[in-house]
């Protein structure tokens, strides 16, 4: 399994997330194989400008994003830990990711052994969809009956606007941790990370461009968005108004290497406590950074008016 590193470790609060058994396989295998697209496992929406698909066999995680009717997918859905999906963290629970001690980690897609999360409900029309998901514990593997995720997506012009939600009804009180809101995995040819890191957000200041290495690196995102772009300067951007920092990396000796990917995750920090309900807005875009930045700027006041719900009963 080749999922993201531990976001908490990337910021120094716990040990790093490792790739376990697949790391050796990925480094040894010379070529990257594209996962098969099985129509029965997908639900797509398309508004004539943007095409988005969720993968039913991976907790309705977002596994496809492209221009309308395009056959070129920009997202990585190689396994249950990739995709664009929710991922949260809690206390150490005795689970092991291959040979690495791990912690309570509800993941939308499923577990590291390839067992899918449970899709409780999935509805859609031409341009919107909604899902409820019972996540799995990433290393422990069990379906988490005291957790439920939700995902509401609608296409508006060149944007996909989503409301992501998480409810915790368990009795355990978990420590304050960083959470991925969400984890974002993209195709490896989108290799340049673009974001703004200055002290005057939304004033048109210069964007920063870099090629993240391995393992995790951190970035400040005061405009609350980042993008990965290809050599021609076009790619995928993600805007999450509640996040002001992210963790990122690129994996693979080359874009063709098995397991190669480009990853980042906007981060927030809070403790999972009994009765907690948490939700946040996310906006996806395809295009050039300057265009995506302008589109996100046009939404920032509107989304700021709907702050994330975050309350323990």
Brief digest:
The protein is mainly beta. It has helices at 7-10, 21-28, 289-304, and strands spanning 42-46, 50-55, 61-67, 84-87, 92-97, 100-103, 106-107, 118-124, 128-134, 136-137, 147-156, 159-168, 176-186, 192-195, 208-210, 217-220, 225-229, 235-239, 245-251, 261-271, 277-287, 310-311.
What do you see in this structure?
- This protein has a single domain, classed as Beta-galactosidase, Chain A, domain 5.
- 47% of the residues are buried.
- The longest helix has 16 residues.
- Strands 8, 9, 11, 12, 14, 15, 17, 18, 21 and 22 form a ten-stranded antiparallel sheet that branches. The protein has a five-stranded antiparallel sheet with strand order 4-13-20-19-16.
- A hairpin with a 3-residue loop joins strand 8 and strand 9.
- The chain is mainly beta.
- About 7% of the residues have low confidence.
- The protein has three helices and 22 strands.
| CATH topology grouping | Beta-galactosidase, Chain A, domain 5
On the 0-100 scale, what is the average pLDDT? Answer: 89
**Uncertain runs with pLDDT below 50, 5 residues or more?**
9-30
Q: Work out the radius of gyration.
A: 18 Å
For the secondary structure, the number of strands is: 22
In percent, how helical is the residue content? under 10%
Largest sheet: 10 strands, antiparallel
């Amino acid at each position: 399994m080749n999922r993201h590193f531990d976001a908490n470790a990337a910021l120094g609060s716990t040990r790093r997330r490792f790739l376990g058994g697949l790391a050796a396989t990925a480094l040894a295998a010379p070529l990257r194989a594209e996962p098969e697209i099985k129509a029965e496992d997908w639900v797509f929406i398309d508004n004539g400008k943007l095409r988005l698909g969720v993968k039913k066999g991976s907790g309705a995680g977002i596994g496809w994003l492209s221009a309308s009717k395009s056959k070129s997918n920009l997202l990585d859905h190689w396994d249950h830990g990739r995709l664009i999906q929710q991922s949260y963290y809690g206390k150490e629970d005795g689970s092991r990711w291959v040979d690495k001690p791990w912690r309570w980690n509800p993941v939308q897609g499923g577990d590291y052994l390839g067992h899918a999360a449970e899709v409780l409900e999935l509805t859609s029309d031409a341009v919107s969809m909604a899902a409820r998901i019972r996540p799995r514990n990433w290393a422990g593997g069990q379906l988490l009956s005291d957790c439920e995720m939700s995902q509401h997506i609608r296409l508006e012009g060149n944007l996909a606007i989503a409301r992501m939600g998480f409810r915790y009804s368990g009795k355990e009180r978990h420590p304050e941790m960083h959470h991925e809101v969400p984890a974002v995995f993209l195709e490896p040819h989108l290799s340049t990370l673009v974001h703004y890191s200055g002290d005057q957000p939304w004033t048109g200041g210069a964007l920063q461009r870099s090629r993240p290495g391995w393992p995790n690196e951190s970035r400040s995102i005061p405009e609350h968005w980042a993008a990965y772009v290809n050599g021609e300067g076009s790619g995928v951007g993600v805007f999450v108004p509640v996040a002001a920092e992210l963790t990122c990396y690129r994996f693979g000796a080359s874009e063709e290497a098995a397991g190669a990917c480009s990853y980042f995750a906007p981060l927030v920090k809070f403790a999972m406590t009994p009765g907690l309900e948490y939700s946040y807005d996310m906006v996806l875009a395809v295009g050039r950074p300057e265009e995506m930045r302008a589109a996100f700027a046009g939404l920032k006041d509107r989304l700021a008016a709907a702050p994330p719900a975050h309350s323990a009963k």
